[in-house]
Amino acid sequence: MADYAFQNGRLNLIQAKEFTQLRVADVLREAMKTAVDGHLLYKHPDPQTGERQLLIVGEFGAAGREQQTKIEAMLADHEVGLYSPETLDTLIQLIRETAH
After folding, report:
1. Please, where are the H alpha helices in the chain?
2. Global pTM?
């Protein structure tokens, strides 16, 4: 599931995801699935790794860009972090400051 991970009291699973579907409905469906998956990870700690959180590095196509604000809010409501290529520096800084 995760492409990368880092620990900072919680195992943060970093996954690259493309919201590049052509239809808005398909983009939102992918975002909803991601939100639910992330919510389940957040609410149900793993016996071996403990608490977890999903962080998405998202790439947006035309339909996705139209819905980006809605997708960001949907993911945040389900405890899923979203970073775009433009905000990747923020994720890098978070890792530098909190990873152990």
Report:
1. 24-43, 62-66, 68-77, 88-98
2. 0.93
What span, in angstroms and rounded, lies between the C-alpha atoms of 2 and 16?
8
pLDDT in tens, 61-93: 998 888 999 999 999 999 999 999 999 999 999
Q: Quick check: 54 and 13 in contact, CB under 8 A?
A: yes
**How many CB atoms are located within 10 Å of the residue 66 CB?**
13
4-98 classified as CATH 1.10.8: no
Cβ neighbours around 10 below 10 Å, total: 15
Would you state the structure tokens that stand for residue 92, as one six-digit string? Answer: 């890098």
Half-sphere exposure of 16 (CA within 13 A, CB side): 5
Partnered with residue 46 across adjacent β-strands are 50
